[in-house]
Amino acid sequence: MRRRDALPDPEVDHGLRELEAALAGEPAADPQLTRLVADVRAAAPAPDPRFLASLDARVHAGFPREEDTPRRPSRRAALRARFLRPTLLAPSAAATLVAALVVVGIATSGGGDDRTDRGSASSSAAASSSDEAAKAGRTATMAPGAARDEAAPSTGPGARPAVRTQSAGTTAAAAVPMPTVPSTTPRKVQRAAELTLTPAPADVQDTADGVVRETQAAGGYVQTSSIRTREDGGTASFTLRIPSAKLDDTLASLSKLAHVGSLSQSSTDITAQTASAADRLSDARAERRALLQALGRATTDRQIASLKARLRDNRSEIARRQGALDAQRRRADLATVAVEIDSAGQAAAPKKGDGAWTPRDALHDAGRVLEVAGGVALIALAVLAPLAVLVGLAALAGRAVRRRRRESALDGAR
Amino acid sequence: MELSTSEPTTARFDALYRATASDVFAYVMTLVRDRASAEDVTALTFERAYRRQASFDPGKGSQRAWLFGIARNAALDELRARKRTTALLADPEDPAAASDATADHDDDAAVRRATVRAALAQLSPRERELIALKFHAGLSNVEIAKVLGISAANAGTRVHRAVTRLRKACHAPS
Question: Domain coordinates of chain A in residue numbers?
């Protein structure tokens, strides 16, 4: 079986050689074939001189565009302009845009571990700056129902505790507004705070010393303390009593000692309890005055002895009630601050001074940008590659169809 | 005619145009068989070639074969368009050929040319195209194969077959 593109058979080969010789005008060529070549060439249609002159001019002019309308525009070109580009380029662009948006969305919202990292990062960002932590403390203090309310008129016996919490990674809860019942008694508010510091393992002792130093500087005292240091760090816990008026400044100072892992504050209105203790003391003192008056009026020994015994009991009661009132006042005057120092949290938290943008941060950011860009490119490739294959196949098919149609046009001609 | 690629683009194209204008017209005329259409197609061929000069790759064939490929596509597009619009019941007579025959009626050469024209008219369009590519355009079998998109051997066989038929038609009693 012969292949179509195999060498021609000897007869064809010989005929072609003779033809080539005749076309080349070789003397040895077949004279009959040479004459045929000459006749066919002589019968070749010649272009009209006017047409040639016109074409010459156009060629020399470089086929200017404005004269580019001797024929109607190609139907294929029109189809391509109208349909092919919008239908192929628009979906491609749209798919790329959607892919980019998806990737940007994923990158922005974060996923899986990224979310955790981002959470801790924002937590760090919120708490790492000592100034910010101090500011947070001040903000909490200035919230309604807190220290400001100490000077405000008392809400009366129905006062409720207002608790606010601010910690790293969480926003401060809204303070519960106090009922504004008019009262002449100044309000008493008990304040408390919990602070977690995460210093470097080698800085645990220094941080603990700083806590004590700042407490004493504020006029407070260390109620309890516990410090455990190891080679790889350590922990410490303190219960501090700080004058309520200096709580905010002290928290700001303590926050500067190390990275703040968390900070929370609370305040409880104890006006009612204080007023109650004062009333009970006042009652006891009134009773003493009545007993002393009765003692002055007593005439018998038995009456005198009985009144003296009651006076002794009353003294004890006054002392006890005075102590209770003092305790209430101390609760308002001294805030309780629980400080936890733990170097273990340092590994996950940024080091001190991370507020500055370092080359390492830049490297990390650049890596992240490349990561996102790579993701975008990958998704775009995943979308565009099949599209490109389809376009390629369509182009090939279109080319084949076009070729077949052209050939059929020749077959149909006479 | 192969042109040096070091020449300026306009000069190279001008040389190509001068070397092939008449041949392209003759080839296109053979395909479309209408002088006005042939002129349009010829002009379109050179315009396309001018605008696509950068797409010519010497590694894929000669510039002449490339040009005749463009001419072929343009001519076939013209035939398709003609088929869509008006079906010609008969080919219009070529006035140039008619005047030639009239003027040289007694001339033996003119008679032979008329015989050749008659023989060509008996060939199929594809055979006429092969004759035009071989005799008017002067392409080699390899170049013809490039233009037609077939193998060189197939092109040679087809050319031989077309020439054989033409010779028979010329010698056939009219």
Answer: 1-40, 74-125+359-414, 130-354
